[in-house]
Amino acid sequence: MKKRVEKSSKEKVDKVDSVTDEEPPKTADVELDFTELCKLMGVKEIPFVKIKQSTSTNRGVMESQMTTWSSKPCLQIELENEDHGSVKEVKITGWRVDEVVLQVLSRILSSLSNLQCLHMWRAGLTDSTLTSIRNTVSLCSNLRKVVLEGNLLPEQSYHLLIGEDSMLTDLSLRNNHIGEEGARLIGLALSTVHSANKNLLSLNLTFNSIGDAGAIHIAQGLRLNRSLLCLSLSYNQIGDNGAAHLAEVLGPFALTHEEIVERRKLLIKGEESTMVQPSLVSLADSHERPLSVRSSSSLDRLNKTTKNPTKKKDNPKKDEKPAPGQAAKKEEPKVAKKDNKVPRSQAGKSAGKDNNLLVSEQEVRIRQKWKENVVETVIPLLDPGIVHTGGKVIHPGNACLTSMNLSGNKLTEQSLKVFLSSLEGQGEGGLLHLSLNRNHFPSDCDTFLKIQEIMSLRDPLKKNRSGQVEDEHGEPKTTNDA
After folding, report:
1. Helix H or strand E segment including 182
2. What is the model's pLDDT at position 271?
3. 61 Cβ contact partners less than 8 Å away, ≥ 6 residues apart
4. What fold, for 13-254?
């Protein structure tokens, strides 16, 4: 009997495939297509489709209606305009999505060229259905935001949505009981020494059970990730140990043996790939570029520029003038004396003068040649700010992350001191917003006040006209919120 049911279901799927492949609709009508496909698949209780149009006048009303829980299965659709093919957002709230309905959704969503957000709250997802959703998301050309909240997965495979090839920019995984294992997988998806997610800008992990061990895994993922801008870890039972690891990644940290080995491989590869191309970038110009920028597609840009060296032949004589080049070299020692930091183009020259900042001349030469191929600093292990000191290779830290929320955890003043040290050690870029309210430290402790002062100077959104620090809702704030 079981085999008959499986065979029947497979026949229905094949039938849907043939219908959608042979007769693709000229203009998408989600309500009609969804209902017809559900009937074709034998869905007993077909969810009704609720359509709302997104306009500036009824936006607030529409959003409140869109998030209303329904006792009956309901597919909520938000349109960009009156055209039913302009679906901008799809919401499923409070009803279980089984494999059959997911098959229908997969075909509907992939045909919506304007779809930007998929929201699934308490949809009874499993690890198997999440894999199907991942495949569906990859077929949606403009889908960049996914919200999966209240979906408890036994294998915690949420990381599948943020693989190296994922195009998502915003992902919310609130209230999914994500523990240490889920955090470990997410950390690996953010970055390893061999790969990194290049598109995710915002990750919300609020109201989970990540804890100290999970926070350490997330911190590990932040070491070499240069795309993530906003990270929320509020209400995750994180204590001083986990918070300290998160703080250390923001400031200068020592590379591990594995990272050093991979760095050497990249340096050798860079030297080999640039031997064909003579240097055309002057040392004087190289130190003008910022230390850290978003790395949306670093390796892709590197490969493209390496394969197309013809772009460097546009002005072959401009950088060959002897006078400017000589002038630039003479000015370098003077700059090194004024600034305690080693300029990128001068690391080799200052190595002999400062034993604490030892960078070989060969490495400086390789770095410069990499800059000719990569306009931006996009490979963390080749960051020009890396220095050798005390027998260790020190990375300047993750200055790409601009917002971190650690509210409602178990931080004390002990971990605040690590945050303060990292914030003071950050150069260009770095955190603009750090939320630490509702933790285990007094709001008037010296360390917190110093952090609050640094963040109020950095974040323009937290200062109102009178110079008062504001909270996340724009109200004047004097409690534990940095």
Report:
1. helix 180-190
2. 79
3. none
4. 3.80.10
CB atoms under 10 Å from CB of 454, counted, come to: 19
Contacts of 411 (CB under 8 A, 6+ apart): 238, 239, 240, 243, 436, 439, 440, 441
Instruction: Give the position of tokens 């039938």.
Output: 15
Q: What is the mean pLDDT of each run of 10 residues along the chain (482 residues)?
A: 47 48 53 90 90 60 47 88 84 93 92 94 94 94 96 96 95 98 98 96 98 98 97 98 98 96 92 56 38 42 45 45 44 42 42 43 49 55 93 95 97 97 88 95 95 87 51 51 52
What does the DSSP assignment read for 38-97?
HHHTT-SSPPEEEEEE--SSSHHHHHHHHT---SS-EEEEEESSS-TT-EEEEEEESS--
Q: Which neighbouring-strand residues pair with 434?
A: 404
Q: How many CA atoms lie within 13 A of 322 on its CB side?
A: 0
64 burial type by CB count under 10 A (0-12 exposed, 13-18 middle, 19+ buried): exposed
112 burial level (CB within 10 Å; 0-12, 13-18, 19+): buried
Q: Please list, in sequence order, all residues whose beta carbon lies within 8 angstroms of the beta carbon of residue 443, skipping any fewer than 6 positions away.
A: 478, 479, 480
pTM beyond 0.90, yes or no: no
Three-state secondary-structure class, residue 120: strand
Find the distance separating the first CA and the last CA of the chain, reported in whole Å. 62
Residues 87, 113: Cα–Cα separation, whole Å: 8
Query: 170-172 and 87-93 as β-strands: parallel, antiparallel, unpaired?
Result: unpaired
Q: Three-class SS of residue 453?
A: helix
In 3-state terms, what secondary structure has residue 208? coil
Q: Determine the Cα–Cα distance for residues 411 and 415; give it in Å rounded to an integer.
A: 6
Distance CA 201, CA 170 (A): 6
Domain ranges in the chain are 13-254, 259-307+343-395
